[in-house]
Design a protein that fits this description.
Blueprint lengths: L26 E3 L7 E4 L5 E3 L4 E3 H14 L28 H15 L3 E11 L4 E10 L4 E10 L3
Antiparallel strand pairs: 1-4, 2-3, 5-6, 6-7
Length: 157
């Protein structure tokens, strides 16, 4: 049943119903901070832009990537925030399990990124090369588009 937003003094509200809808655009700051230019001035010098935004699918993709690359205890007052993938690089090879890794990634995205729903997670753990490769396929809730994020983490010696 639609919500009424006017009072009875505004007229006879029993005849028509008022439906209110609001579209939401996902926006985040572009974290690449690459040199981008918006044009040139009269002398031909490039004019740099201040801060660029990522919108809709690109914003959600960047948020999922940042979530997975964040380790536990890196975010103040949110000790369990993040995917904690870097910790996989320093575990013993017998402790790493692909199923547990995929479950941890899915629960992190479900808990901290409501704009995305996980469809499929593929992970490859190479303990001999100290490498973790993860590909996350997800659905962007606002646009119903599918997108994916690929992460390759290697341990430096």
């Amino acid at each position: 049943m639609p919500t009424r937003v006017f009072s009875n003094e505004d007229g006879n509200l029993n005849k028509t119903s008022i439906a209110v809808s609001r579209t939401r655009v996902d926006q985040d700051i572009d974290l690449s901070f690459a040199a981008k230019f918006i044009g040139t001035d009269d002398s031909g010098t490039n004019l740099p832009a201040d801060v660029f935004k990522k919108t809709s699918g690109a914003a959600v993709k960047q948020a999922v990537r940042n979530l997975l690359l964040t380790n536990f205890t890196e975010r103040p007052f949110m000790h369990r925030f993040g995917g904690n993938l870097s910790a996989m690089l320093f575990r013993l090879s017998t402790e790493i399990d692909d199923v547990n890794l995929e479950g941890d990634i899915a629960s992190a995205i479900e808990a901290f990124e409501p704009r995305a729903r996980v469809i499929n997670i593929t992970s490859v753990v190479s303990p001999d090369r100290h490498e973790v490769r993860v590909k996350v396929n997800f659905l962007i809730v606002a646009t119903l588009q599918q997108d994916s994020v690929e992460l390759n983490l290697t341990r430096l010696r």
